[in-house]
Amino acid sequence: MLRVLSVFGTRPEAVKMAPVVHALARQEGVQAGVCVTAQHRAMLDQVLNLFEIVPDFDLDVMRADQTLAEVSVRILQELEPVLVQFKPDWVLVQGDTTTAAITALLAYYHHLRVGHVEAGLRTHDKWQPFPEEINRKVVGVSADLHFAPTEWARRNLLAEGVPPESVLVTGNPVIDALNVVASKPTPPEVRDLVDRLGVGAGKRLLLVTAHRRENFGAPLESICAALRDLAARGDVEIVWPVHPNPNVYAPVHDLLGQTAHVTLLPHADYLPMVHLIKSASLILTDSGGIQEEAPAFGIPVLVLRQVTERPEGVAAGVTLLTGTDRAVILREASRLLDDAEAYARMARAVNPFGDGQAAGRIVDALLHFKAD
Question: In the annotation, is 41 catalytic?
Answer without folding.
Answer: no
